Amino acid sequence: MELSLGEFTSAGSLDALCSLLNPSVEEDEGDCRGPLAACVGPGDIGPARSHEPVSEMGRDRRNIWDESEVTEGAEFEDTLDLREQPEYEILFKQQVGTEDMFLGMSGKDTSTACCEQMVIRIQLPEIKASEVSLDVKKTFLNLRTPKHKLALHLPYPVDSDNGKAKFVSDTESLEVTLTMTRELDFINFR
Question: Domain limits at 40?
Fold first, then answer.
């Protein structure tokens, strides 16, 4: 059905169109006025909406993402924090024996896929060990001092409950040793 502008010249027709597109909250549902008025509005098209914020999957529909979808450590990244990032290096360690070095019996090589531990050396000049705050998660390391901040996403998941940290005062550095956790594959069987 085509409508022309001539059909909406009367004030009653425009009022009916207005009430159709913008139904009043105070309007009774059974109140239908005039020949062009309808008892339903555009918001009534489609399935009925519930006014509860929880969806069928059990998560709040008002949230853009679920908490499990947020990258671990994102809560520590602060772009407004003007403390400098310290220099750091990531080293990998593996346990090898003579059968690995001379005979190559275990199939280990020098790649990080064969390593069991990750060592992170962080240079912290003019900092005391008591000023260091360190938090390690499965894939994230967060270090804070009065002068430095380091929010580091780790290259491999680690066992965050069983790590070691040692402050070396001679070199003014912190050495964090973490055991890597990976799915078992033919290299990592022990």
Answer: 8-44
Around Cβ 149, how many Cβ atoms within 10 Å?
Answer: 19
Q: What is the mean pLDDT of residues 110-117?
A: 81
Q: Could you report the per-residue pLDDT of 122-146, keeping only the tens digit for each?
A: 999 999 999 999 999 999 999 999 9
For residue 55, pLDDT beyond 90: no
Residue 167 lies in a domain: yes
Query: CB neighbours (10 Å) of residue 57?
Result: 7
Lowest mean pLDDT among 10-19, 69-78, 83-92, 125-134: 69-78
Q: Do 81 and 174 fall into the same domain?
A: yes
Q: Answer whether residue 38 shows pLDDT above 90.
A: no
Cβ pair 162, 182 in contact under 8 A: no
CATH code where residue 155 lies: 2.60.40.790
User: Any idea of the CA torsion for 7, 9, 11, 17, to the nearest 10 degrees?
Assistant: 40
89 in Cβ contact with 120 (< 8 Å): yes
Count of domains for the chain: 2
Unique residue bearing structure tokens 């912190």: 174
The tokens for 178 are 């973490």
